Amino acid sequence: MALQTEDPGMSRQAPVERWAPEERDTLPGVGWGWQALTGIAVLFLVTLHMIANHFVVTGGLRDYQQVIDYITNPIILPLETLFLIVVSWHGLLGLRAVIFDFGLSTRAERAVTRVLLVVWVATMVYGVALLAILVTRR
Amino acid sequence: MTERVAGADRRVERQGRRRGVMGWVDVRGRRLGGWAFILNRLTGLGVLFYLYLHLIVLSQLAVGPSAWDSLLRNWFLNPVFLLLDVVLLAGLVIHGLNGVRLALVGFGIVIDRQKALLLAFGVLGAILIVIGALRFISDAGAK
């Protein structure tokens, strides 16, 4: 973007009109590439999650003790924590794209981004607190 | 040259965005990829709704063993709920495979034969959903 604004040939074209759509994606972790990257991570983690919780359990789904045994496993706990972080980011980023399809003003779009960021942080606090409670139940 | 092409792509993208949400239900000139886009949005919203429902329900684990186990016996292993699990699995499979398809096309790994890719993923998805459905339904009343 900086490279293009410094180009004298380009400055004759209406710059505001050109840069506006990109400005929203200057936040780190936002944009199509991140949606793809988190999507790939979610694909692996959700497959593990579904197999571990719905396919290999005797009786189909985990009862309380089986959940505690599962979540306190030293390999599973970091993977499920990572799943929580990445899947909520991917999901809220997707919701943001859907909301942006309504054609909001740049100001409204920034507000949406801020609200969704707060939702994500709240999800992290809730999720990590729940995991911490369950880990101590062992 | 590359700059100009990128600029043209952005203009097309912005024109598409201007159609907004109503563009989703506008069937005029919609190709196979367009339907896949709508399906991706709808399954994405559905799965996101489930994610938060799931996180809320998981709070019952913190209440204790009896709270969770009675939920499991009375609700989650009920055939109706297991059918809803099949719907969830279908949403995940469709959204996941479509996402992989989009990434393959978007990163330019698959440019030709996009239709064949869509068809192959469609068949793979159907197989996964059927396998999951058979497994889930067999769990009814298992505990």
Which fold name is given in CATH as the topology of chain B? 3 helical TM bundles of succinate and fumarate reductases
Average pLDDT across residues of chain B?
84
| String of helices and strands of chain B | HHHHHHH
| Overall form of chain A | elongated
Might you state the CATH topology name of chain A? 3 helical TM bundles of succinate and fumarate reductases
* Residues in helix, % of chain B: over 70%
Mean pLDDT of chain A: 84
3D architecture notes:
- The complex is a heterodimer of chains A (138) and B (143).
- Chain A is an all-alpha fold and 138 residues long.
- Chain A has helices spanning 2-6, 15-23, 32-55, 64-71, 76-100, 106-136.
- Chain B is elongated.
- Chain B has 143 residues and is mostly helical.
In summary, what is this structure?
The complex is a heterodimer of chains A (138) and B (143). Chain A is mostly helical and 138 residues long.
Keyphrases for this structure?
heterodimer, A: 138 residues, mainly alpha, 3 helical TM bundles of succinate and fumarate reductases, 74% helix, disordered N terminus, B: 143 residues, elongated
List the helices and strands and how they pair.
The complex is a heterodimer of chains A (138) and B (143).
Chain A: H1 2-6, H2 15-23, H3 32-55, H4 64-71, H5 76-100, H6 106-136
Helix pairs in contact in A: 3-5, 5-6
Chain B: H1 2-18, H2 22-25, H3 32-57, H4 59-63, H5 65-76, H6 79-106, H7 114-137
Helix pairs in contact in B: 3-6, 6-7
